[in-house]
UniProtKB/TrEMBL annotation:
Keyword Signal: yes
Sorted UniProt keywords: Signal
InterPro entries reported for this sequence: DctP_fam (IPR018389), TRAP_DctP (IPR004682), TRAP_DctP_sf (IPR038404)
Secretion signal, residue range per the UniProt entry: 1-23
Record-linked CDD domains: PBP2_TRAP_TM0322_like
Organism: Chelativorans intermedius
Protein name listed in UniProt: C4-dicarboxylate TRAP transporter substrate-binding protein
Length: 325
């Protein structure tokens, strides 16, 4: 009888322990530099909601806009150390760790959202992601978040690369970004997104290269007059977390995190298409001049130099071959 009681107690303890493991809660603090009115912010909130639903609330994503958790580069270093933090970033910054992946941020690398999505099937891209995770502690959850075409926004009209000569254009602090803007004719100036408005006011920079919704969200039209439609980068965003943190999640939580990231990203990319047109119309109403007669052939030809300078032209061509571009 005593043995039966002990066995029952052991079984109960085992079941309780199992329940405790299943009910373990995880939290991801997710940081991005964009404002709360940007479509991406709403998309990240949807991602968080759906992941919570699929995990019965046991995996929570807390979304922080406007770089509330800190500067992007600092956050990425915290992620590498295993912190339960995520960051919306780009291939330019990831290229600081795996140089080849920076091609995704190069001039005219992809021309459509469909080409951007096709990158997920590229063996070369998959290899770079594995290297990021295994050697640098950065797990790419997905990169289906396409923020639209970046253009030069300035206080003078730009139609050719020569028109950018001598202009200091704000860029993020990453080699591919710096070399891309230099190749296209301007002088790149590293600056955080939140510093662009005062930087323009104080004439630390003469312009920026951004997407249309960035301009309306940050009221940059108050300090910029021209939208020059160079469409030099179709910006593909990467959502990254600590590979150590990710690997410690239950398998079904990992699956939920990735699948819902991709779904929310593709939905948000479609929202961005519409938001871009709306933002452009708003800026025109508010007095911004749009320059559409840009010499695209000249800009495309100039952009090739960025790949050559960084030694990643072969990597670009390899990925293009894999996606049929």
């Amino acid at each position: 009888m005593k043995g039966m009681k002990l066995a029952a107690a052991a079984l109960a303890a085992s079941l309780l322990a199992g329940t405790s493991v299943l009910a373990q809660e995880y939290t991801l603090r997710f940081n991005h530099v964009l404002g709360p009115s940007e479509p991406f912010h709403e998309g990240f909130l949807k991602w968080a909601e759906r992941v919570a639903e699929r995990t019965n609330g046991n995996l929570q994503i807390e979304v922080f806009h406007s770089a509330q958790l800190g500067v992007e580069e600092d956050i990425i270093e915290q992620i590498r150390q295993g912190a339960n933090i995520g960051q919306n970033t780009d291939a330019a910054r990831l290229g600081n760790y795996v140089p080849g992946i920076a091609v995704v941020n190069g001039p005219y690398f992809v021309s459509t959202i469909e080409e951007a999505y096709a990158l997920a099937d590229s063996p070369t891209m998959q290899g770079w992601q594995t290297e990021l995770a295994e050697q640098h502690g950065l797990k790419v959850v997905c990169f289906d978040w396409v923020q639209g075409f970046r253009h030069f926004f300035t206080n003078k009209p730009i139609r050719t690369p020569e028109d950018l000569a001598g202009l200091r254009i704000r860029t993020p602090p990453a080699p591919i970004w710096q070399e891309s803007i230099r190749a296209l004719g301007a002088e790149p100036t590293a600056m955080n997104f939140t510093d662009i408005y005062p930087g323009l006011q104080q004439r630390a920079v003469d312009g920026a290269e951004l997407v249309y919704p960035n301009i309306t969200a940050a009221n940059l039209n108050e300090v910029l007059d021209y939208a020059n439609e160079t469409a030099h980068i179709l910006l593909v965003n990467f959502q990254v977390v600590s590979s150590q943190w990710f690997d410690n999640l239950p398998q079904d939580y990992q699956t939920a995190l990735v699948e819902e990231c991709r779904a929310a990203g593709q939905e948000t990319s479609e929202v961005i298409r519409q938001a871009t047109e709306e933002a452009k119309a708003t800026l025109v109403e508010q007095g911004m001049t749009v320059i559409e007669d840009v010499d695209m052939d000249a800009f495309r030809a100039a952009g090739e130099k960025a790949y050559e300078v960084l030694g990643i032209l072969d990597a670009k061509n390899k990925v293009h071959a894999e996606i049929g571009k």
